[in-house]
Design brief:
100 residues; mainly alpha; 5 helices
């Protein structure tokens, strides 16, 4: 059911919702609640996967796949890419604004 609703959202709305989950992860990171932070990042990854599963998405697959990789890197705590949650949020924030 969620996948069906998700597919009806614009790409701007989808990325805006992903930004919201990243924002929540930032809040929990500042509160030093790693478990809840990871829950927010897991939700962001779930939403990214739903976006990638959208058969109508023709452009931006490469970028969304990279976003998935960067969120997963933060989730795992690897910090391979030296991209913070704030960096990700700042990249996604314009999509949240456009979707309103």
């Amino acid at each position: 059911m969620i996948a069906e609703k998700w597919q009806n959202l614009t790409i701007f709305e989808q990325l805006g919702n992903i930004a919201s989950e990243i924002s929540r992860a930032i809040v929990w990171e500042k509160k030093m609640d790693d478990k809840t932070k990871k829950n927010s990042l897991a939700r962001a990854l779930e939403l990214i996967n739903l976006t990638l599963a959208n058969k109508n998405l023709k452009n931006g697959l490469k970028e969304i796949t990279r976003l998935q990789e960067l969120v997963a890197d933060n989730y795992a705590g690897e910090k391979t890419y030296d991209v913070s949650l704030e960096d990700l949020y700042n990249c996604l924030l314009p999509f949240a604004v456009i979707s309103k």
